[in-house]
Specification:
Elements: E1 4-11, E2 15-20, E3 25-30, E4 33-35, E5 57-62, E6 71-75, H1 77-80, H2 98-113, H3 118-121, E7 125-136, H4 138-142, H5 145-153, E8 158-162, E9 172-184, H6 185-194, H7 204-207, E10 211-216, E11 221-227, E12 230-231, E13 237-239, H8 244-258, H9 265-273, E14 280-283, E15 286-289, H10 291-315, E16 321-325, H11 327-342, E17 348-349, H12 354-358, H13 360-389
Parallel strand pairs: 1-7, 7-9, 10-16, 16-17
Antiparallel strand pairs: 1-2, 2-3, 4-6, 5-6, 5-8, 8-9, 10-11, 11-12, 11-13, 14-15
Helix pairs in contact: 6-13, 8-10, 10-11
Length: 393
């Protein structure tokens, strides 16, 4: 029997962040896919295996969970270069999109083949069993969509075949799930705040306080109300507004004003958040500011996010602090801070380390699924012992 491997996967609108095993492996893949043909043209095909696999993911995906089965995709950086690339649309449900599953299966398949010798493994099939911790927006969990999402992963074999992909061309991975835990994203953020990777409590002063967690994603925003160490389901709210629409608007205006077409929303995020030359692009070889475009659009979005905070805080007046998390918070941090200083002066906090905020969900899922395994392992071990001691009939 294949040993089950821990996988903690956050399929974010911007990118997939995944932790594997005992944190010895992680993956970051932009959440972009593009339908493709089986034999994509490659310049220097004989040098394919010298290229970076993560920049050239080309796969066929077979799964009964997919609406479009056996489709061929470019994924991540390779897809971003395509004219027909797709990112998750505003208003869509993460749990009901093929793209979510394609990205999930891709990350698991890449983990399964990592380190294997390409030549000896050509045309081979890798059997990979996972115990998965992942999550969905609070709104989707409240609607019960986590149940269907989990059930379509369990009990089936999901196959990823690497086509024109460096090092892994010709390899197939059969993915099976021994267990799948789907967590509400707001609660996951809380767990990450109070628990370290060894499952020890690190922020004792937060445990029994009433706090808010505003998770700004690409497609949606969740505000979790944490009291008595749990999410208050009645008070928690989800909104169909993230940063994706605003990023698309910035892309469109940069194209209209400067004639520069950015490959994906990921490029816009990079322009806004990078350490050097923020809010600048190259136009015909000249460094050009797009601050007028980004400031106007992001400030408008920050105002809407601030209204969400104000409305939820009014209904939960005994809350002590609100933590902003998620990739969208990294984009809007300075705008929300400025608004808060001018207006209500709520007790709010951001993670100064943007990387920590971006990886928060994947890290939280890792802690939660590790805790689940720790609690259930003695039960499984006892069952195995009984099987071994049972007399033969």
């Amino acid at each position: 029997m294949t040993k089950s491997r821990i996988a903690a996967v956050d399929v974010g609108n911007d990118a997939v962040k995944a932790n594997f095993g005992k944190l010895e492996s992680e993956l970051y893949i932009p959440n972009v896919i593009a339908r493709d043909l089986e034999d994509r043209p490659v310049i220097g095909i004989e040098e394919l295996d010298d290229k970076e696999p993560l920049d050239n993911i080309h796969i066929r995906v077979h799964s009964p969970a997919l609406q479009e089965n056996n489709a061929i995709y470019r994924v991540g950086n390779l897809a971003a270069k395509s004219d027909n690339s797709t990112e998750l649309d505003p208003g869509s449900s993460k749990s009901e999109e093929d793209q979510t599953l394609v990205m999930l299966f891709t990350s698991l398949a890449l983990d399964a083949v990592a380190g294997k010798d390409a030549q000896s493994s050509k045309n081979s099939v890798v059997e990979a069993n996972y115990t998965l911790g992942t999550g969905l927006p609070l709104r989707e969990v409240k609607e019960g969509k986590d149940v269907g999402y989990r059930s379509q992963l369990l009990g089936s074999v999901h196959q990823v075949e690497f086509l024109v992909t460096p090092k892994y061309q010709g390899m197939k991975v059969n993915i099976k799930f021994d267990e799948v835990k789907v967590y509400p994203e707001g609660f996951a953020a809380y767990v990450n705040l109070v628990m370290d990777n060894d499952l020890n409590i690190i922020n004792k002063d937060l445990i029994d306080r009433q706090i808010l967690i505003q998770d700004i994603g690409g497609l949606s925003t969740d505000i979790a109300v944490i009291r008595n160490r749990n999410v208050d389901d009645d008070k928690a709210q989800g909104f169909n507004l993230g940063v994706a629409e605003s990023l698309e608007q910035i892309r469109d205006e940069i194209l209209t004003k400067h004639g520069v077409e950015l490959d994906s929303r990921r490029d816009v995020v990079d322009i806004i958040t990078r350490k050097n030359d923020r809010h600048h692009i190259m136009v015909r070889g000249s460094r050009t500011s797009v601050h007028d475009i980004t400031d106007r659009i992001l400030l408008e979005l920050a105002k809407k996010q601030y209204r969400f905070l104000r409305n939820v805080w009014q209904k939960n007046s005994q809350s002590e602090i609100c933590y902003f998390v998620g990739g969208g918070s990294a984009v809007l941090k300075e705008y929300i801070k400025t608004l808060n200083n001018k207006l209500d002066g709520f007790n709010i906090d951001f993670f100064e380390d943007e990387n920590e905020s971006i990886w928060m969900m994947a890290n939280a899922y890792y802690k939660l699924i590790s805790d689940y395994i720790r609690k259930t392992e003695p039960i499984h071990n006892k069952k195995e012992d009984k099987k071994e001691k049972a007399p033969s009939k």
